[in-house]
Amino acid sequence: MNDVVAAKQLLRRQMSDAREALDPGQVDLWSQQIVSQLLASPLIQAGSSQAQCSSIGLFVAMRQEADLSNAWQPLQSRGIKLCFPRMISIDHHPDLEFLAIPDQADPLTFMTTSRFGVREPQAIGKLLSGVSGGQMPETQVGQQPSLCDPQVILMPGLAFDRHGNRLGWGKGYYDAYLARRTQAGSQRPVCIGVAFPFQIVELVPASVWDIPVDYLLSPAGFFRVR
To answer: Who's near 88: CB < 8 A, 6+ residues apart?
Structure first.
């Protein structure tokens, strides 16, 4: 167990340093290629017999992560609900809840910055109370995020391998959410790891509670893991 933890910490430092050293132009190029691959995927193709997505879990990029914001409007135009994770605590353990953005609205309108610097949707009911004088613009009255368990979740990470193992920041938010959702009897979402080419490595150290992704999405393509 200590060996796995140490191996994760070492790989986490290596991949974090490599990602933050990327040229911003390279990040932009890879991000756009990833968006193109996502929009061409049969999982979210409108009218596709393979389509299984009416709601999708996304994330707002930070620290040189893949920026998927150019996919937001095209996904909305296909009738797909955009859901973003918010960090919560259940019984003093890290967890997530996903909030769906109102149809056709700009997700950034509903975002706040968490204590970890992550952009996430504000808690339900916080938008109105946080507006000066308690008045929201007319365009936002009645529009607040709603709880959602997305059918497909795009997951950030520092590294992935072709068996679907994922290395995050070590807090376990996604693993806790997926485990709780499965235990509650609801269908497991399709989990997609979003990776730049160098982030797909030979082996990611994994613990028994780590939940692998089902697919990898990179600039080079979209493929199911082994």
So the answer is: 95, 96, 97
Tokens describing residue 80: 């797909």
SS3 content of the chain, % helix, strand, coil (to 5): 30, 25, 45
d(CA 199, CA 183): 30
Query: Mean pLDDT in each 10-residue stretch from start to end of the chain (226 residues)?
Result: 88 96 97 97 63 85 96 94 94 92 94 89 66 46 82 96 94 92 83 97 92 96 89
Nearest Cα residue to 124 out of 102, 104, 105, 106: 102
Beta strands in 146-207 (DSSP E): 146-147, 152-155, 159-161, 166-167, 190-194, 200-201
Kindly report the length of the chain. Answer: 226
Residue with tokens 């490599």: 18
Region for residue 137 given its phi and psi (left: phi exceeds 0; alpha: psi -120 to 50; beta: otherwise) = beta
pLDDT at 123: 81
Q: CA 205 to CA 143: how far, in whole Å?
A: 42
Tell me the sheet residues that pair with 222: 217
pLDDT of residue 151: 93
- Helix/strand/coil for 65: coil
pLDDT given for residue 206 in this prediction: 92
pTM: predicted TM-score of the whole model, two decimal places: 0.88
Provide the CATH number for the domain formed by 2-130+137-224 in this structure: 3.40.50.10420
